[in-house]
């Protein structure tokens, strides 16, 4: 099973700042099979990025994804108040899906 | 637009079977993959398994011995059964739609239903 590790666990930033979130896999993941989700309190997760770098429908361009192999990054170029949430990476391989433990982006 | 709605008992006794339904509205479940994903309170996400509209399934190995999933295309519903539950199965349970050429990500989620395992 591929294990995903996310860092940092919590990111404390101010609105307007840039957020850089890391997702590291225990073995190589096809870029096609790496996605990011945002989860706000009391809500279900929602898709942000698929295929490591493709924004989902309706996602603003301040969100971007990059990476390959075992290292992937989600960048939020300028935090808006609604972006403070928990972010999860997710991979698919061998008919199995695993999620990272999440990174909480909180207001500093 | 397509919406997913989970439903089922909010409280299940230890050792019993948890049974949930996901109703898909605004679209057909046919020719698509659907997953169940859970999230214990304050914790992360765990994939439980998926079911294709034909009934083909794949389960998380850690839960495989206790999980059964099925579809009812006439009702546009998915179902999840998890047997021999313990307190560790207390979680928010979500159904989600797969997308992608390899069905590799989840583009639509239900709001979830909270299931507590307690006597």
Task: Describe the structure in your own words.
The complex is a heterodimer of chains A (108) and B (119). Chain A has no helices and ten strands. By secondary structure, chain A is mostly beta strands. Chain A is globular. By secondary structure, chain B is mostly beta strands. In chain B, strands 2, 4, 5, 6, 9, 10 and 11 form a seven-stranded mixed β-sheet that branches. In chain B, strands 1-3-8-7 form a four-stranded antiparallel β-sheet, with no helix packed on it. The radius of gyration of chain B is 13 Å and the shape is globular. At the A-B interface, strand 5, strand 8 and strand 9 of A face strand 5 and strand 10 of B.
Would you summarize the structure shown here?
With 108 residues, chain A is mainly β. In chain A, 0% of the residues lie in helices and 58% in strands.
Please describe the topology of this protein:
The complex is a heterodimer of chains A (about 110) and B (about 120).
Chain A: E1 4-7, E2 10-13, E3 19-29, E4 34-39, E5 46-50, E6 54-55, E7 63-76, E8 86-93, E9 96-99, E10 103-107
Chain B: E1 3-7, E2 11-12, E3 18-25, E4 33-39, E5 46-52, E6 57-59, E7 67-72, E8 77-82, E9 91-99, E10 105-109, E11 113-117
Parallel strand pairs in B: 2-11
Antiparallel strand pairs in B: 1-3, 3-8, 4-5, 4-9, 5-6, 7-8, 9-10, 9-11
């Amino acid at each position: 099973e591929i294990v995903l590790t996310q860092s940092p666990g919590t990111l404390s930033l101010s609105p307007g700042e840039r957020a850089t979130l890391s997702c590291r896999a225990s073995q190589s993941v096809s870029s096609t099979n790496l996605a990011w989700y945002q989860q706000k309190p009391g809500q279900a997760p929602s898709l942000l990025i698929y295929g490591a770098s493709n924004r989902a429908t309706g996602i603003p361009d301040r969100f971007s994804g990059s990476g390959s192999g075992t290292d992937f990054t989600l960048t939020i170029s300028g935090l808006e108040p609604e972006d403070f949430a928990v972010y999860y990476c997710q991979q698919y391989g061998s008919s199995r899906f695993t999620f990272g433990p999440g990174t909480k982006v909180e207001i500093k | 637009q397509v919406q997913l709605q989970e439903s089922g008992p909010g409280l299940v006794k230890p050792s019993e079977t948890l049974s949930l339904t996901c109703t898909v509205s605004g679209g057909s479940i046919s020719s698509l993959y659907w997953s169940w994903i859970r999230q214990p309170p304050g914790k992360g996400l765990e994939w439980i398994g998926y079911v294709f509209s034909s009934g083909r399934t794949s389960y998380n190995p850690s839960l495989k011995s206790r999980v059964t999933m099925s579809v009812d295309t006439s009702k546009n519903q998915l179902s999840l059964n998890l047997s021999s539950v313990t307190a560790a199965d207390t979680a928010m349970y979500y159904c989600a739609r797969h997308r992608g050429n390899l069905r590799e990500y989840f583009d639509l989620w239900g709001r979830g239903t909270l299931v507590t395992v307690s006597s």
